[in-house]
Design brief:
Helices cover about 65% and strands about 0% of the residues. The chain is mainly α and about 220 residues long. Helix 6 (about 95-110) packs parallel to helix 8 (about 130-140) and helix 9 (about 145-165) packs across helix 11 (about 180-195).
């Protein structure tokens, strides 16, 4: 790949993973809001553990594996459709299902600023990691950088949600992101090579919290 193409790929990845990209991720906490209400996440230490567990053993891990599969199969319409169905079925709660589909649809709509026929192959009702994986591959963004960008954006969104919930301040948020660099760097190649056989989670409490959030009376977030 030429230097110009590499720079172009990097710029697009940074844009798509930016908090300013119009996908509406700021409206979701992935169950974190309920975990705060239940005192499972109450400070920087417990927040870091919560995010790390999600990335290594929870929804973050499954999303990374799904992203990798979509990246590899971005030219195969049937494979993408099957993957989209699987990604939706793996959602642990109604809110998690709504979240990933809403983010996926918003991402694909905004990504039309960079026209490519992969957008037609994906359709409109596609889970967020599947959309990002396929579109990233179509625009020559290498798999591991795409995974690192996605995992970092996911961690950053959780940190941002925790700041809004008054669990931590901005300085602690930066420290958490610094501490998560090593896990993210380690997880990217693992997810890239895991395949669908590597799907699976072991974060039962996090899944329960996403379900409990559905009946939470007062809340800031949609999940």
């Amino acid at each position: 790949m030429s230097e110009r193409k590499e720079a172009q790929a990097l710029l697009r990845l940074l844009t798509w993973m930016s908090p300013a990209f119009p996908v509406g991720a700021f409206a979701y906490s992935g169950g974190l809001e309920r975990a705060v209400a239940d005192d499972l996440v109450r400070d920087a230490a417990t927040l870091r553990q919560w995010i790390k567990a999600s990335l290594e053993h929870g929804a973050g891990w499954n999303d990374a594996v799904l992203l990798a599969e979509a990246h590899r199969g971005f030219e195969d319409c049937a494979a993408l459709a099957d993957l989209a169905d699987l990604a939706a079925a793996l959602s642990s709660s109604r809110e998690r299902h709504a979240e990933t589909l809403a983010l996926g649809a918003a991402f694909l709509q905004a990504a039309r600023a960079w026209p490519h026929d992969v957008l037609e192959r994906l359709g409109s009702a596609v889970a967020y990691p599947v959309a990002i994986g396929a579109v990233s591959a179509a625009h020559s963004i290498a798999l591991e950088p795409a995974l690192i960008g996605y995992l970092h954006a996911s961690a950053s969104q959780s940190v941002s949600a925790a700041i809004r919930l008054s669990v931590i301040g901005q300085r602690e948020g930066v420290e958490i992101l610094a501490a998560l660099e090593e896990p993210i760097e380690r997880l990217a190649p693992l997810a890239a090579s895991a395949g669908l056989a590597g799907l699976g989670t072991a974060t039962v409490m996090a899944d329960i919290e996403t379900m409990r959030h559905e009946t939470q009376h007062t809340r800031l977030f949609r999940s």
